[in-house]
Every structure is written in C-alpha cells, then in structure tokens.
Amino acid sequence: MNRFLQRWLEREKPLFPKLRAIPLFRELNRRELQAVVEVIEIRKYLTGDVVFEQGAPGDGVYVVLKGCVEMGQKDGEDAEKVLLARSESGSYFGETALLEDTPRTAAAVAAEDTRLALFPRDALHQLAEQRPHLGVKIAMQLARIVAERLRQTNHSLQVARDELVEKQKESGEDAS
Description:
four-stranded antiparallel sheet
C-alpha cells in the first residue's frame, strides 16, 4: 500500500465505528471493513446542497458521517415536496441503489453542513469480483435490510387499511 493511502486510512479510522454501526457493514471483520473503506468516497455538502435529485440515477448507499440529510418527494411538477425521512449522523440512505440501476424515488438535500460516505454500486461489484465472500456478505445484509423494510411497509399498509375500514364503518353507522 502506498504511503499516501496509508496516511489517509489512518486519518479515516473514525469511519470504522460509523460503518460498523449500520447493518450493511455490521457483520464485516476488520480486514473486510478496510476493503470497504478503501472504495468509499467522502463527500461534503453545505446546508441546502442537493445530494441527489428525484429521478437521478442511483449510484450507491450514503452513510451520514456528520450532519443531516432530508429526503423528499414531489408528485408532479407543481406539487410541493413532501418530507419522507431525515437521516442523521450514523444513519444511511439510498441502499436500494446497490441492487439495481433505477432512478431515485426521492430527492436528498443537506439540512445542515453534512459529511457523507458514498459506497458506490460499482465498488460493490468490484469487491464482489475481487473478493466474492465479501460481496456475498454485503449482498446478504442488503437483502435482510430490504426484507425488513418490506415487512415494515406491509405492516404499515395493513394498519392503514384497518383504519380505513374502521372509518368507513363509523361513517356508515352515522349515515343511518
């Protein structure tokens, strides 16, 4: 490893606990996590800077190292943006971009001065080719994350359906 990369890695050791704290990298050993750190891109954003636009190609998963990012969605050109989520230090967003090359379903904007670590989809493919075991570990964790989000979404939909049915029953009783 060249001297510049070694100094950079020493400076970036604080990345280890931040990365290990998110489920995508939680199961990785130190050597595997080091391989991930070597391909991560650090990006800085000022308050109000756009991380990505709704409809932009998904490039990878972002880990919030410092600051806060808000995800919002517009339904049509003239519609107001609806806040969907806030990702703060130690959290992550955009992980489905690791799975497929589809447009982003929401925009992400820095809510304050923010420092992000981008783990690009191309880097995952590169790691999977060079170190198949590592690629499989990350892919399995990603599958668990997506499955858990799907379970949560299904639960939320069921709760919303139940509430709607209840409201329909109440309004039907009031009408009689």
